[in-house]
Amino acid sequence: MRQTRQIALYILIFIVTLLASGRQSRAYGPAASSVDSVIYYGEQRVVLGPKSFLIDGSLSDQEIVGKKYVFNSLQKAVQYLKDGTASEPMRVYIAPYVYWLDDPDDPALRVPKPGENVPFGLEIDCQWLSLIGLSDDPSDVILAANRGQTMGAKGNFTMLRIRGEGPSAENITFGNYCNIDLVYPKNPSLNKKKRGAAIVQAQLVFCDGDRVFARNCRFISRLNLCPFVGGKRTLFDRCYFELTDDALNGNAVYLRSTFHFYGSKPFWGASRTGAVFLDCDIHSFVESKQYFVKTAGQVTLIDTDIDSQTASYVGWKALPDAESSYQYQIRFNSKPYTVGHHHPQHVHPFLATQDALLAYRFTHSGKVYYNVYNLLAGKDQWDPLGYRSLIEAQEHATGIPLTNIPTQLRFAPHNTRLEAKKDSLCLQTQLLLYSGEVLPPGSVSWTAERGQKSVNIRPMGDGRCVVIPVLDTDTAQHITIYANHVSGLRAATTLEIVPQQYDAPSFLKSPKLQLADGILHCSYTLDSSYPDETRITWSRSRTSDGRDAIPVQISPDKYPLKQYRLTAADSGYYIHCRVEPKHIRSGLGLPVDQVFATRLTPAEVGPPDYSCAVPLATMPTQNQPQLIPGFWSLDAYAPADTREYDWQVDTSKQAWYYGVGVDGAMCDTGFVQAVQGARMRYTPLARHQGDMSIQFTAVPAKTAGQGFGSARAQYLDVYIKFDHSRLTGYALRIIRTTKYADAVDFQLLHYKDGHISPISPPVSTTVFRAPCYIQIAITDHKLSVKAITSTENRKSLPSGVRNDVMLEAVVGETGHGGVGFQHTGTVGSGATLIKDIVIDWN
Q1: Measured between alpha carbons, how far is 124 from 810 in angstroms, rounded to an integer?
Q2: How far is CA 96 from the centre of its chain?
Q3: Which of 41, 241, 798, 815 has the greatest CB tally within 10 Å of its CB?
Q4: Within 13 Å, how many C-alpha atoms sit on residue 713's CB side?
Q5: Spatial CA neighbour of 498 closest among 514, 478, 480, 517
Q6: Distance between CA atoms of residues 841 and 721, nearest Å
């Protein structure tokens, strides 16, 4: 970090009288009595009392007998806390030591209380609580836990919860050592090994109050760090953070702080006030690309240095959008840098001449000051750094306002889809201070990034405009509208402008089915000159009226599927065809149903196919739980070996969707899980005694190789030679475990009436990264799996971890040929896209 003033306000000259027992004074410890106990902290003389406690973990229970305000653990002190005020907080002075807020050696699992989602190590209810470490080195005073999701806890274990206004901390390390070794040089006997190498959700501090302040503190964990998350105005001054993903407080100011990023997305989101970095140092240890936000929100980087020997690019989001983030004087590996420059349309760097920069920094007597007071003062003039008088003097001297300067311009909620010649939209901006107060919008100008000919923008004053779509093409366009505030702030929103929509077309020639060369043809003529986007659904039914019809193929997006190739699975069924007329400028019209005149015979459908490239693009995605020979079954299911984690299958939604994936799968299209427990299975037409194989491409949304959201029995089972009705057969299991943070285990399983037994040792591997090519085969009673990825192999791997997979096991004969996929992980960023499925029965 660049040179800063050496602040010597908190030098420990800790003086203690002799204990009543007559032993010599310690470097730290309680005074002689509970009445006149005194400590000297810096130049401050502190008399212990009802609102001034001392905690010293090196003292025995006997040594604190009779000392009313001296404790040897935070847990004991909490029982006697009194609410403080802004002027007289409840101060707890903590001597150097390691303080476990949850017993690390207790084998019992921590579970959430009824009605809550996470278990806590310690909960404190206290207004204006101040925790003060008695050393200017925060690594001397450690508040510790070592539990996380699946490692000593069910749920995202959180070390500490503080309820109350104005919580603060100084000179303290808050550490969850679930996945990190605790090393304490002052007393190595207090060292503690981590629970495991796998990176799990291991959280630090939740709070719910306003005016949260941490100075010279260290926050150490990995996944879901959560340093004082949940408060309103929050300031971290000269703090240190060590973390992976979904970790930082997205509504906080970070001043002159240092960060070690071991994950590519340190913020889940920053959607309220946003996060501000002022004169910070960021050290990235991720591979390839470093981002800031996973979902949404505003991040501001001012005078911040970023360095990395592994990352080649720094951006705001992996999938950027129109939302504005800001930057000024950023350096990457000691060179000037523009964050997000791969997507210049979303880059909005500060300029030194813009008024908005004064919201964050100003110069006084040739020296740069960071305008924390402007950011955090709010209505109650909170001034945690004591800058108010300096700022008022600067304002008086220059006549330039340095307070009540907004930091965010955004749009009020609105629709994002407009139809030409029908809809219009009033866009209303909101101008906000960082503390959340709304200001009059003032002068705003309006521009469109592209497609200006597709919309008219009419300014209305008061930060408003009306957007009128005038698109005159057949295809929709996405247009970004910018509101540009006179200060330099910007709001942006992307609108989908669709052409004028007409009534669905009628038929000049009604749909008709004809069979030729094993293909059913649907012919019709629309009363329209626009491109045809009619939706056609092909179904099988045992009855001619279609009462039990099950869809088996459907038109892909914007393409009418007019042909249906018959297969042996169609024998004995009526084929129904539902035609819903549509063109490029209309919605769907009323359906017209047709049925082929007769039930199909084996002679009409031909012999069975022993090799099948599954046409996922035309496969229906609605839930279909029935196990019927020749059909795919789609549903969701919670296997018995996952039920200890008490999750429920959501049957109100489709379990799968066909489309574009997210995160690591955002460049691919295929079948993706939409609910936890998504399952898809194929039941062949007859028993199958011979060999078989399945190959497919898996594209995990997770990019580090961990595959799934957490190690809570989250896995992907791929069935082969399977009897789905009896849950009997074989499977490959790909599962996230607590062993590694960036690897999964591959293992072969035998299912017998729902009971599972492993038939190969697990192989830990980094291969499960996009794209991962997997082949599973049973040949001559030998089950084999091969898996590789085209993503660059990891050069440095822990012992026992592989870059590829080859597994084998001897198996018996099942007499079945079913295949399927069962995904028990969370969805969205924890899902896996599946494509290019090919099945062979020999």
Answers
A1: 57
A2: 36
A3: 241
A4: 15
A5: 478
A6: 10
617 SS3 class: helix
For residues 164 and 51, state if they share a domain. Answer: yes
Residue 424 maps to a domain: yes
Same domain, 763 and 811: yes
The number of beta carbons lying within 10 Å of the beta carbon of residue 562 is 18
Contact 36, 46 (CB under 8 A): no
Q: Are residues 203 and 255 in the same domain?
A: no
Question: Looking at the domain assignment, is residue 183 inside a domain?
Answer: yes
Structure confidence by residue, pLDDT tens digits, 457-515: 999 989 999 999 998 889 999 899 999 998 889 998 989 999 999 999 999 999 999 99
DSSP-based three-state secondary structure for 482? strand
At 779, is the secondary structure helix, strand, or coil?
Answer: strand
User: Quick one: 230 and 282 in the same domain?
Assistant: no
- In a 13 Å sphere around the CA of 478, the CA atoms on its Cβ side amount to 5
Rounded Cα–Cα distance for residues 769 and 790 (Å): 9
Is-cis flag, bond preceding 771, omega within 30? yes
Query: Phi, psi at residue 720, to the nearest 5°?
Result: -150, 145
- Of 605, 635, 662, the domain-final residue: 605
* Alpha-carbon span 149 to 645, nearest angstrom: 11
Percent of the chain with pLDDT over 90: 78
Q: What is the pTM of this model?
A: 0.85
Residue-level pLDDT at 458: 94
Query: Do the bridges between strand 611-613 and strand 832-841 make them parallel or antiparallel, or are there none, so unpaired?
Result: antiparallel
Question: Is the separation of the CB atoms in 22 and 148 below 8 Å?
Answer: no
What whole-number distance in Å separates Cα of residue 433 and Cα of residue 405?
6
Whether 472 is in a domain gets the answer yes
Residue 249's Cβ-side half-sphere holds a number of Cα atoms within 13 Å equal to: 27
CB 212, CB 228: distance < 8 Å = yes
Q: How far is CA 96 from CA 104, 155, 172, 190, 355, in A?
A: 19, 31, 9, 12, 45
Q: Give the Cβ contact number of residue 752 at 10 Å.
A: 12
Q: What is the total count of domains within the chain?
A: 5
* 222 φψ region: left (φ > 0), alpha (ψ -120 to 50), beta (else): alpha
Residues spanned by the domain of 427: 408-498
Q: Which residues pair with 253 in a beta bridge?
A: 235, 276
Chain centroid, CA 266 distance in Å: 9
Sort strands 444-448 and 477-485 into parallel, antiparallel or unpaired.
antiparallel
Contact 575, 596 (CB under 8 A): yes
Asked if 706 and 799 sit in the same domain, the reply is: yes
Is 807 found in the same domain as 746?
yes
Whether 787 contacts 774, CB under 8 Å: yes
CATH of the domain at 493: 2.60.40.3440
Using CA atoms, how far apart are residues 178 and 110, in angstroms rounded to an integer? Answer: 13
How many angstroms separate the CA atoms of 254 and 304, rounded? Answer: 11
Closest CA to 145 of 180, 187, 186, 118: 180
How would you label 138-150 residue by residue, b for 16+ Cβ within 10 Å and e otherwise? bbbbbbbbbbbbb
Locate tokens 């503390």: which residue? 435
CB 74 within 8 A of CB 42: no
- What tokens appear for 533 in the block? 């986007």
Residue 35 has pLDDT above 50, yes or no: no
> What is the tens place of the pLDDT at every residue in 555-592?
998 899 999 999 999 999 999 999 999 999 999 999 99
Q: Which of 72, 102, 78 is nearest to 90 (CA)?
A: 78
CA distance 612 to 837: 8
Q: How large is the average pLDDT for residues 699-711?
A: 92
CA 59/CA 62 separation, integer angstroms:
8
Are 467 and 481 a contacting pair, CB within 8 Å?
yes
Longest dimension (CA), the chain: 108
